[in-house]
TrEMBL record:
<dbReference type="InterPro" id="IPR006094">
    <property type="entry name" value="Oxid_FAD_bind_N"/>
</dbReference>
<comment type="similarity">
    <text>Belongs to the oxygen-dependent FAD-linked oxidoreductase family.</text>
</comment>
<dbReference type="GO" id="GO:0071949">
    <property type="term" value="F:FAD binding"/>
</dbReference>
<keyword id="KW-0274">FAD</keyword>
<keyword id="KW-0325">Glycoprotein</keyword>
<dbReference type="InterPro" id="IPR016166">
    <property type="entry name" value="FAD-bd_PCMH"/>
</dbReference>
<dbReference type="InterPro" id="IPR016169">
    <property type="entry name" value="FAD-bd_PCMH_sub2"/>
</dbReference>
<keyword id="KW-0285">Flavoprotein</keyword>
<protein>
    <recommendedName>
        <fullName>FAD-binding PCMH-type domain-containing protein</fullName>
    </recommendedName>
</protein>
<dbReference type="InterPro" id="IPR036318">
    <property type="entry name" value="FAD-bd_PCMH-like_sf"/>
</dbReference>
<feature type="signal peptide">
    <location>
        <begin position="1"/>
        <end position="20"/>
    </location>
</feature>
<dbReference type="Pfam" id="PF08031">
    <property type="entry name" value="BBE"/>
</dbReference>
<dbReference type="InterPro" id="IPR012951">
    <property type="entry name" value="BBE"/>
</dbReference>
<dbReference type="Pfam" id="PF01565">
    <property type="entry name" value="FAD_binding_4"/>
</dbReference>
<feature type="domain" description="FAD-binding PCMH-type">
    <location>
        <begin position="73"/>
        <end position="249"/>
    </location>
</feature>
<dbReference type="GO" id="GO:0016491">
    <property type="term" value="F:oxidoreductase activity"/>
</dbReference>
<keyword id="KW-0732">Signal</keyword>
Amino acid sequence: MAASTSLALVLAVCCCCCYAASVAPLSSADSSGEFLQCLAAGVPSQLVVTRGSSSFASVLASSVRNPRFLAPGTVRPLCVVTPTNASHVQAAVLCGRRHGVRLRVRSGGHDYEGLSYRSVRQEVFAVVDLAGLRSVRVNRRAATAWVDSGATVGEMYYAVAKADAGLAFPAGLCPTIGVGGHFSGGGIGMMMRKYGLSVDNVLDAMVVDANGRLLDKKAMGRDYFWALRGGGGESFGIVLSWKVRLVAVPRTVTVFNIQKTLAQGAVDAVTKWQTLAPAALPDELTIRVVVQNKQALFQSLYLGTCDQLLPVMGSRFPELGMTRADCREMSWLQSMVYINGGTSSTPVEVLLNRTTSLSVYTKNKSDYVKQAIPSASWEKIFPWFDGAAGAGLIILEPHGGRVGSIADGNTPYPHRSGVLYNIQYVAFWPTTTATPAVPDWIKNVHAFMEPFVTSNPRDAYVNYRDLDIGENAVAGGVTSYENGRVWGEKYFGAANFRRLALTKGKVDASDYFRNEQSIPPLVSTK
Ligand SMILES: Cc1cc2nc3c(=O)[nH]c(=O)nc-3n(C[C@H](O)[C@H](O)[C@H](O)COP(=O)(O)OP(=O)(O)OC[C@H]3O[C@@H](n4cnc5c(N)ncnc54)[C@H](O)[C@@H]3O)c2cc1C
Ligand SMILES: *[C@@H]1O[C@H](CO)[C@@H](O)[C@H](O)[C@H]1NC(C)=O
Ligand SMILES: *[C@@H]1O[C@H](CO)[C@@H](O)[C@H](O)[C@H]1NC(C)=O
Ligand SMILES: *[C@@H]1O[C@H](CO)[C@@H](O)[C@H](O)[C@H]1NC(C)=O
């Protein structure tokens, strides 16, 4: 407690000085002033926090997950707009367009490159922070919910399970992830083998488009609705709310964590896991792997009881040596706490805590694997994760089941048929180190892995955003499609990226909603 309080304090102090030092010279002071005046007409003044305000630093930092992007020199917004009504969002879009000020949308602020609240290049922009629009309205009888973008997935899990403990939703593991960004990029989680990604369960959405109109699925049309469900945040407007199909979970689920050292057969277990976890286990069972300190941690969620799970593990995966003592039975809601580092008695209310820890710098990258990596290669891979300073970990997320059986073009998320698992590389280093510079380790391990992962393109997951794979270039006033293909085809595949770009060309041809990896507009010549 004491440690986290002093950390928060250090952060607040640090922010005050870096903001003072890094207020960028505005390229168009006039239009900024006019933009703010325009906002004043449509948004109550207490909901527009400008750089001069004493609360600017804390409001801007409120949901930031990665302290690298709080460092001095970061390009910051002119103001943060904190809407409490759709009309405020519409006003921000209309004022922004009228006065040439772009908007960055922020829901949970967990973007890996901080694109929801900082710009890589000098530019004048405003942040629309949706944290104030976060209600979760559950329709128990229909097993659906309308979830506002500013809700965290933890808040969503809590609201859904409190309404009906037999209902849940397939989404990510970290409770502070925002629904807005998470759903915009897909939504990988521990139930995707049974129920698919978050976006596979989105039924409707409310979006404010580049003309400031508020549209539902029917009004926006088929391609637009398709693009919102995984085409990446920012590009297609500001999604305010999502209607989702809730899924059934049993009253008791079972979790386990089993760790294997090299001497205990970690290499053989991971080698077998690669083809077992995505294909030869029941869809109710998800086992992910974390490789760190030359050990493999097998983390599992089973939608059933320990009695049901034991024979499955005994016959399919005896290498783990799982016994009844490894089982933890609990409610599904409690399992979301457990998997995130809690225990079976941690109060589920921790899921409502929106405060993020800022104690480490991190940098992540991703890959997909379609062909199992031989054990001799795993012998060489494990030493990369030796716990040395600057070295980190990998997380392997099994696909297959429902997520793998949906056609690649059904949503913009293309990593479906034939995918065994996703790899996420995580480098982390303490904020007490003098510099937020990324250690070479992550670049080197990523290069080492090239022969083992998909190629042409080397696929990546848009929600694990990585600017190393490419950034937009502007040509003729809009971002270039040709240039965007470099990173876009990795995230979405060639066909989906083209469809996203054509959709962007239809709904935002002038490319108002733009960031370093937004979808470029492609205007069909047909
Ligand atoms: C600790 C941690 C754990 C994670 N675990 C998982 C996981 O288990 N599974 C998984 O799939 N991912 C996971 N992620 C990645 C996460 O899904 C993405 O970072 C996601 O984009 C975060 O959404 P956000 O709303 O918090 O982010 P933000 O930073 O607010 O937004 C991300 C992007 O979407 C845009 N955006 C945000 N809201 C909207 C909106 N309402 N309308 C339009 N565009 C919008 C932003 O402008 C930005 O470009 C994790 C991330 C972290 C930091
Ligand atoms: C937004 O304002 C309108 C008009 O005043 C009102 O009808 C609506 O309920 C408000 N929405 C929210 C989410 O408060
Ligand atoms: C990288 O992933 C880890 C594990 O999910 C997460 O804690 C961290 O915040 C991520 N990094 C960034 C830059 O957000
Ligand atoms: C919320 O989470 C933060 C960051 O992990 C932690 O410091 C804080 O103590 C938590 N607050 C409560 C009330 O649990």
